[in-house]
Amino acid sequence: MPPPAADDLSRGARLALLAVLLLAALLRCWGLWHDLPFSYYGDELHFMKRAMALGTGDLDPHWFHKPAFLMYVLVFVYGLYYVTGRLAGWFGSTAELGARFLFAPGPFLLLGRLVVAACGVATVFVVDRIGRRVYGTPWAGVASALVAATLTPMVVSSQTIKSDVPCGLLMALSVCAYLGTRESPRLRPLAAASLLAGTAMGTHYYGVVLVPAYLGMEALRAASAAVPWKTALWRGALVVLLFIAGFFLTSPFNFLDPTWTRDTFGHVAGSFGLTHGPRDQGVHYDPDTDQEFKPGAASWVGAAGAFFAMVGSGEALGIALSLLAAAGLAATLARRETRWYGLLVSIPCLFFFLAAITVAAYHAQARHLNALYPLLATLAWPGALAASRLVRLKEPLDRAAALGLVALVCLPLLARSIQHDRRIGQEDSRRVSYRWVLAGLPADARILLDDYGPLLNPDARAAARLAARLRTLPPGPFTQHQGLRVELLQRFPPRDGRDLDELGHQWWLPREKSDEELRRDPKDLDMASPLVSRQPRSLEEYRREGICYVITNSLARDQYFPIGPRGSRFPSFIRFYRELDGTRRIRTFDPAAWGGKGPVVWIYDLSQPAPPEQRPLPDNWVRRPSEDRDLE
Question: What is the pTM assigned to this prediction?
Fold first, then answer.
């Protein structure tokens, strides 16, 4: 039995860990119900729709911007929901389940978010395990877990259906398994770590950065004469083989469908400036940062600066935690007992950084770092401990001071996460305008609906137009299963259906293309649905087609105003919004009016000119601070 002091320490650490886990669960579950039964986050809807499409029996996702493992997990969860609903009498067939998904997706959204949130809380627990095993004290685990529990991008990413947090969990589990290779020469921990790394790769492509980490650690073990080189080479080959096996088992169509291999190698070659097509003339464009750049070495310095600026921002680690993690890495590398772990963390971080300035230049965002946040969180303890020892505190005061310092650094993280949870729980302008449209506009009026919401369901007339358009399109990632969707729209017409046409945006392009050009280019067909028109026509043309009302919002309009380098390259959209200002604006939904969130939503009546008292929106109109962009 351990001595009483050690037993008390362990009991206190267990209670502290329980409190941290409860805090992590509270922060993540607080915001899970935001905007239900809707989602205004396109990526979340995309994951959910892909998962339901897989449930039709076609297990090929036909889309490889993300691997498929999370989609397969969602299919399993939705299958359990169907079995439960069938037994409870909620629906009598899979067709009814599909119709419910199309017209009332709230339960599907909540189930998917619960899966991701559970992964987020589990990640906090795994971080605790890593911290206590590496640094030899349970308080190191508690401190590491506290960082992971409160870090805002880890909280935010746990509240939407995305693969960043599940991938981060699997990467943390893989590293935790790899720690066992320090304790035993047996192959089991190495095999488990490699399979989990492959599973992480099947969830999001970040998982690949663990392969050079494990290969490097095995080579260092041989270089230090701990094992023969022959053994190290054999173990390294096992890492690669089991990594590929884990990837294949969790996302098999990355191998079986030639699309991913072709596009991946083409993208990598283009990122280094080795190839380019006639459409880009050697210039790449990142839509998330609105950045055009020449790929190759000339762009690496700027991309590196953008990456470090993002890491140090409040949306990611922030300055204080970045400094604490840097100090912790230095302290970990300085100590002989923990140097191996410092290298184990450094290698994947280095390869992630290299990928962020080459194959994904200017693209990295705070949520992408969920692959590394669990590992970086474990560096807070040695950093804080090193700081406490600078003032020559002795044990156990130095450990108490270190824990206090970590808690102090976590306070602003906690405040920011709470602020985020409160904000996303506010009433969204798109929900308010949705209710008004159903009550305030004639049910038979034809509507042109701009992208980004509010979300409306098409009625039978709109579904018939979709079916006719679908017959003219070539097969592609966004046309798979659309026939089934249209059939369900016609078999189970939604009660809130409206005769609508949708206007999309060319958000991934640096300059405007016509609808015909978009539907001829495989790369454009891979980025967005060709069922939606992405080039606005004149208002007179819309009137001749029978459009009575136009619903638009500031998220759409702000892409082009104030007129800058990007806006000037999309003349059709500039003309469209200026023409709208010449018609009567019958309703404005500004979330600032009720302390809500979301974009400003405007509804125009095309049959009436703008009255004299209606001022057109100025070209320098800018987004209001009340609009929530955290989930974009």
Answer: 0.91
pLDDT digits (tens, 9 = 90+) for 97-137: 988 898 889 999 999 999 999 999 999 999 999 999 999 99
549 CB contacts (<8 Å, ≥6 apart)? 441, 445, 446, 447, 448, 586, 603, 604, 605, 606
Cα→Cα distances 67→78, 170, 406, Å: 19, 14, 35
Same domain as 447, residue 373: no
Q: Are residues 155 and 245 in the same domain?
A: yes
Lookup result for tokens 């050690």: 6
Nearest alpha-carbon partner for 283 in 205, 357, 353, 361 = 361
Give the number of residues written for the chain. 632
Q: Which amino acid is at 343?
A: L
Maximal CA-CA distance, the chain:
86
Q: Are residues 168 and 19 in the same domain?
A: yes
- Pair 154, 370: CB distance under 8 Å: yes
Domain match, 452 and 418 both = no
Any domain includes 297? yes
Residue 566 per-residue DSSP state: T
pLDDT in tens, 159-201: 999 999 999 999 999 999 999 998 888 899 999 999 999 999 9
Taking the C-alpha atoms of residue 171 and residue 142, their distance in angstroms, rounded to an integer, is: 19
What DSSP line would sit under 56-77, residue for residue? TT----S--SS-SHHHHHHHHH
Residue 478 domain-assigned (yes or no): no
- 357 with 304: CB under 8 angstroms? yes
DSSP sequence for 465-494: HHHHHHTTSPP-TTTTTHHHHHHHHHHS--
What range does the domain containing 591 cover?
429-456+498-609
